[in-house]
User: Fold this.
Amino acid sequence: MEKKFTFYDSHPGLAGATARLPEPMKKAVDELNGKTASLDEIMSKLQPIAKELEGELIADEEEKYITFTIHREKLIHSYKLISYK
Assistant:
């Protein structure tokens, strides 16, 4: 059986340094906030959105969070989407 985690601290979506978190991804991580699921389940839910936005998801299993990186012309921006424990 896959280990279950609780997902929390979703990205606030604010502009930050250079770019606001795209709304489809913001909505998705907000819906995951407080949920308990396996990492694979969560990555499977976020992957289609990341693909649509032409971005990349990475789960940092040591630090226990998921990042989303987008590349737009001269902009490369990574967001810490959501943490898990």
